[in-house]
Amino acid sequence: MGWIILAGLGAATLALLWLLGAPRALWTFGAAALMLGAAGYTLQGRPDVPGAPVSAAKQTRPDDAALRDLRGAMFGRFSSIDASFFAADSLVRGGNPDIAARLMLGSVRASPNDAALWTWLGMTLVEADDQTVSPAAEVAFRRAMTLAPAHPGPPFFYGLAQVRAGNFAAARPLWRKALALSPEGAGYRRDIAVRLALLDQLLAMQQREGAPTRPVR
């Protein structure tokens, strides 16, 4: 039974890493961690022994090149806002998302009508709040959607933030909107469609198992 549970956990972990938009480097780390866990279970598995809490130290974040590429595909590359994006990315990777959020706040104050900057302010606020969609982050995302109502970027990243926060039900209408707004020939359209399909499967599984889902706000 232990091996069946471990195999199911491995498959679910890899699917969720993709759904959450985790960088490829984290996939490798996750696979290695699962293999180490399997080896440890084989050698000295003791499911009857209670666990003990372990405090996590603050760590740097892995480089998320895939997310940067997706952002560039949606909002464009080599523009005047790239400096803000790249600086915020560097600060988040260095374990300073709070400083990244302050930097993005300064950027939106300088360019208050730029939907891309408001979107990334929302993302950095979520990072700074340990993957929690705070009221401030919600204001940033909603401002971005108001400024660019026909652009798929703001609802997509708002949905991604909700998924990372565990608000799966809240993410679904946002990703449906992002998909509807995506041009037919856009390279990122399929990426959004696949993520939405996986999210639908996850929500259906939760419903079958009677797991609670958070309401759409």
How would you portray this structure in words?
InterPro entries: TPR-like_helical_dom_sf (IPR011990). The chain is globular, with a radius of gyration of 19 Å. Helix 1 packs antiparallel against helix 2, helix 5 runs antiparallel to helix 6 (115-128) and helix 8 (153-164) packs antiparallel against helix 9 (168-181). The chain has two domains: 2-44; 65-209, Tetratricopeptide repeat domain (Serine Threonine Protein Phosphatase 5, Tetratricopeptide repeat, Alpha Horseshoe). The chain has ten helices and no strands. Helices cover 69% and strands 0% of the residues. The relative contact order is 0.09. The chain is an all-alpha fold.
SSE inventory with pairings:
Elements: H1 2-19, H2 24-44, H3 65-75, H4 82-93, H5 97-110, H6 115-128, H7 135-147, H8 153-164, H9 168-181, H10 189-209
Helix pairs in contact: 1-2, 4-5, 4-6, 5-6, 6-7, 6-8, 7-8, 8-9, 9-10
InterPro entries: TPR-like_helical_dom_sf
